[in-house]
Design goal:
Structural class: alpha+beta
Mean pLDDT: 94
Helix content: 25-40%
Low-confidence stretches: none
Radius of gyration: 20 Å
Bound molecules: adenosine-5'-diphosphate
Largest sheet: 9 strands, antiparallel
Length: 381
């Protein structure tokens, strides 16, 4: 496999560029805008939205295999292409149970994995008996907390459902209601599975979200080996049951009494795995290409004691040139690797780049000192 089609041209596809060069693989990207990050690293681009299956048919003509950096696709339309022999990795059947958050929860539960209690929102039942706070989610196309709302009381819930219905033409049956999990920490793991069924998992990480958006990732998470093994088991169960070929990101809640609940599956590379670019033998992006090209998987091991990754989110009041002076300060941090995705619309809260700092030890105080340094440069300098 020499030419890989990628549906989606955001930063995840952009970060495949280095690995593609290393492996001698050419990337062709399907993405709507000439300004999208991955256009710069692609050999060729099909300019179309990711759910445009006619465009994906053109992409298929240019490639040996098609993979995903964005899962907001039209599976029914793509399955016609699959029947005509187009090779999707992961296969479409592996994505099918995951694209709707309600179906995803059902799939995970039926697989015997622990998930938060959940209900589809029915016409006549916005009060599920879950108590409050409760979490209301739009079932499809949510990302970075868009479409996820923590709701404190029944009146606000009613109003929220009503306002979602009117604003976005999303009707009640496209909403999911689930228990609010008072987690102690959030964890995540990246896992890859090859054509031959080999599964590897990256070190389990701690992720820190603010207002439902990932702000930081600490690798590895400070958890017991038993807990890490439990998370790895979850990853193996899931990837094997879906017969995945590719890379998945799995987000989890760790409760105060040590229980692990699966929150969400991303059927692609994930923000929680960006540290692997600089801290691991094989990055998640190289791993995705290795898997979908039918190569054996590389080692996911870290080659340093630890790493901390901080997302650089858009700040409304800053001009573009301010970003560049901040970036040059970040570059001066010892062992820092700075990534800037080159998005031309630096909207508030948008993920514009990230910094990974490699650590010589895993002491919590050195992690928080580095996070403070980065965030004071980025948000307050
Ligand atoms: P998205 O698909 O937009 O990333 P998620 O379902 O992953 O949405 O939710 C984003 C964040 O919102 C989570 O990382 C977590 O911090 C919070 N969250 C989501 N669901 C729950 C829940 N049931 N209980 C508590 N917090 C939640």
């Amino acid at each position: 496999m020499k030419r890989v089609g990628v549906i989606g041209g955001g930063q995840l596809a952009w970060m495949m560029g280095g690995a593609a060069r290393k492996l001698g693989v050419e990337l062709v990207v399907q993405t709507p805008s000439v300004n999208d990050p991955a256009v710069a690293i692609a050999l060729d681009t099909v300019f179309a939205s990711v759910d445009d299956a006619i465009a994906t048919a053109q992409l298929a003509e240019k490639c040996d295999v098609i993979t995903f950096e964005n899962e907001f696709v039209n599976l029914d339309a793509l399955s016609l292409l699959a029947h005509q022999g187009v090779c999707f990795r992961p296969k479409l059947e592996a994505l099918a149970p995951l694209l709707d958050k309600y179906h995803q929860r059902c799939y995970l539960r039926d697989l015997g994995l622990s998930v938060p209690q959940f209900f589809a929102v029915e016409e006549d039942r916005s009060n599920s008996g879950l108590g409050f706070p409760v979490v209301l989610k739009v079932r499809r196309h949510g990302y970075d907390g868009q479409g996820t709302f923590i709701v404190k009381d029944p009146e606000t819930l009613k109003q929220k459902i009503k306002s979602i219905n009117t604003k976005s033409r999303i009707c009640q049956k496209n909403l999911l209601l689930e228990e609010f999990v008072p987690f102690e920490r959030e964890l995540a793991v990246i896992a890859a599975r090859s054509v031959s069924g080999e599964v590897v998992t990256y070190p389990v990480v701690e992720t820190q979200q603010e207002e439902q958006v990932c702000r930081r990732v600490i690798a590895p998470a400070h958890i017991t080996p038993e807990l890490a093994a439990e998370v790895e088991d979850i990853a193996h169960t899931l990837l094997n049951s879906l017969e995945v070929v590719g890379v998945f990101g799995i987000e989890l809640f760790l409760t105060a009494d040590g229980k692990v609940l699966v929150n969400e599956i991303a059927p692609r590379t994930h923000n929680s795995g960006h540290f692997s670019l600089d801290a691991c033998e094989t990055s998640q992006f190289e791993q995705q290409l290795r898997a979908v090209c039918g190569l054996s998987l590389g080692s996911p091991a870290m080659h340093c004691a630890g790493a901390v990754m901080v997302n650089l989110l858009g700040i409304s009041t800053e001009s573009k040139s301010d970003y560049f002076s901040k970036l040059s300060l970040l570059q001066q941090i010892p062992q820092a690797h700075v990534y800037w995705y080159g998005k031309i619309e630096p909207r508030i809260g948008r993920k514009l780049g990230h910094v990974t700092v490699l650590l010589d030890n895993q002491q919590a105080d050195s992690v928080s000192a580095i996070v403070n340094t980065i965030e004071s440069i980025w948000y307050f300098s």
